[in-house]
Amino acid sequence: MSENQNKPANQNNQTAQGDSSTGGTAILLKEVTKSYPGQVKAAVGGLTLEIPAGSVVMFVGPSGCGKTTTLKMINRLIEPTEGQIIINDEDVTGMDADKLRRSIGYVIQAGGLFPHMTVAANIAIVPKMLGWDKARITARVDELLELVSLDPAVYRDRYPKELSGGQQQRVGVARALAADPPVLLMDEPFGAVDPITRQRLQDELLNIQAELHKTIVCVTHDFDEAMKLGDWIAVFDEGAQLVQYDSPERILAQPANEFVEGFIGSGAALKQLSLQRVRDVTLLQPVTASPGENASDVLSQLQGTGAKHAVVLDARRRPIQWLSTRQLSRMEIISDQVDPSLPQVGESATLNDALDEMLVASSGQALVTGARGAFVGLINVESVTEAIAAARRTNGDHSAPVGLNSGTMAAVAVAAADQGPDDALPLDGDGPDGTSLEDSGVRS
Ligand SMILES: Nc1ncnc2c1ncn2[C@@H]1O[C@H](COP(=O)(O)OP(=O)(O)OP(=O)(O)O)[C@@H](O)[C@H]1O
């Protein structure tokens, strides 16, 4: 049996130890335990967890359940009491911790920037330690600032206190990516910013991930964030007991037990909206027009199609106006005026974002833009509803990565196993599809 058989369906081209098709590398936690001095129960009890290369794995669970402890054991900010952590074929528990940390990006809440250093100096910390020359560091700093959507000329010489919370967070991400590490650990990265900034930072992280394909492990308190960002979600209970480890779709459609249901919260159907992107929906193609055109020509086109609105595009095909037949009938020539309040969403926005935009505009429709703001079509409430129904029909046809505990919290284990063979955790040592852990790359 091949090593890939127990990998998630959408990761089948990767081996357990990374693959050239991703910028990331697989991580395997093998029966990892952490007992703090004086603790009655271990903070992490015999956790085995496979983190596929190039995927985003989100850790969720109640406060104090061991998420941060698990995360920090990966880069040895916390030393495990027992077990192995294997990154790129190597058990890193025996490796020099400083060397290890230089190959793992780490992002914490509010960026964790050094206040006495400029943005550029903060980003340059690891490249400097690695002995890069000055020109290479300067070029890399600028490249990373561009990547996180900050203009290098404006921001490179600023100090952290001269940045907004969201900007500090962006610099934190840039710093973590500086030496192009295959692994990125994030601990509540967007916890300290307002909801709108948070949404933008999440979108940006997704864009960056689409480009770089890192292996990202991220702790969050926000289940919606876990669904939006995660390829896989690990739901933990006390002692880092893994209650469910699966795709956001499956966790939503088939929560392992009441504990997971509680985490999902109300409105599971609505949460489907956060799983799908605008680009997954069939867009409508309206009549378009350009500045300088005769309004009457556009009106007759509209009459031909039965539509009531035309989208005016500038020379770079960016939408600038959205005119009704009534507005068109009052003008002769279409102007190049830009309407700043057009309801617009990007292709990578979630259906939830799109619905928000439509509701705010109360038009039931929004303009969709793609690369460099070019118009790609219209989305409406009906197409969103159809996309959700279609997703339900195709839900849940894949196996998940391996995750289990050898710890002592039997109650949780029994609760999960009660869900039947399809939903149960592989507590008997078998993977979700019945393959052995040996086959899945988990070797003793
Ligand atoms: N340095 C420490 N010494 C002793 N106990 C600790 C230490 N750090 C964490 N713990 C305990 O270990 C358990 C797990 O803590 P951890 O911070 O990993 O949880 P968490 O799930 O990340 O929590 P939160 O969501 O509140 O951040 C908790 O009971 C915590 O009190």
Describe the structure.
This is ABC-type quaternary amine transporter. The chain folds into 2 domains: 272 residues, P-loop containing nucleotide triphosphate hydrolases (Rossmann fold); 114 residues, Roll (CBS-domain), CATH 3.10.580. The chain has 17 helices and 17 strands. A hairpin with a 3-residue loop joins β9 and β10. α5 crosses α7. The N terminus and C terminus are likely disordered. Adenosine-5'-triphosphate binds next to α1.
Keywords:
444 residues; alpha/beta; Rossmann fold; CBS-domain; 2 domains; six-stranded mixed β-sheet; five-stranded antiparallel β-sheet; 17 helices; disordered N terminus; disordered C terminus; binds adenosine-5'-triphosphate
Could you outline the blueprint of secondary structure elements for this entry?
Blueprint: E1 27-34, E2 44-51, E3 56-60, H1 67-74, E4 82-87, E5 90-91, H2 97-102, E6 104-108, H3 119-123, H4 125-129, H5 134-147, H6 152-155, H7 165-177, E7 183-187, H8 195-212, E8 215-219, H9 223-229, E9 232-237, E10 241-246, H10 248-253, H11 258-264, H12 268-275, E11 287-289, H13 295-305, E12 309-313, E13 319-324, H14 325-329, E14 344-346, H15 351-361, E15 365-369, E16 375-380, H16 381-393, E17 403-405, H17 410-417
Parallel strand pairs: 3-8, 3-9, 6-7, 7-8, 11-12, 14-15
Antiparallel strand pairs: 1-2, 1-4, 2-17, 4-5, 9-10, 12-13, 15-16
Helix pairs in contact: 5-7
This protein binds adenosine-5'-triphosphate.
Kindly, what is the distance between the CA atoms of the first and last residues, rounded to a whole number of angstroms? 17 Å
CATH superfamily of the largest domain: P-loop containing nucleotide triphosphate hydrolases
| Beta-strand percent range | 15-25%
> What is the 3D form?
globular
| Number of distinct beta strands | 17
Mean pLDDT: 82
What proportion of the residues is helical, as a percent range? 25-40%
* CATH class category name of the largest domain: Alpha Beta
- What's the CATH topology label of the largest domain? Rossmann fold
Radius of gyration over C-alpha positions, nearest whole angstrom: 25 Å
Which small compounds were modeled alongside the protein? adenosine-5'-triphosphate
Main sheet overview: 6 strands, mixed
Query: What is the topology, as strand order, of the major beta sheet?
Result: 6-7-8-3-9-10
**Contiguous helical run count:** 17
Output the structural class.
Answer: alpha/beta
CATH architecture of the largest domain: 3-Layer(aba) Sandwich
Total discrete domains: 2
Low-confidence runs of at least 5 consecutive residues: 1-20, 408-444
Family: Belongs to the ABC transporter superfamily.
Protein name: ABC-type quaternary amine transporter
InterPro entries: AAA+_ATPase, ABC_transporter-like_ATP-bd, ABC_transporter-like_CS, CBS_dom_sf, P-loop_NTPase
Organism: Galactobacter caseinivorans
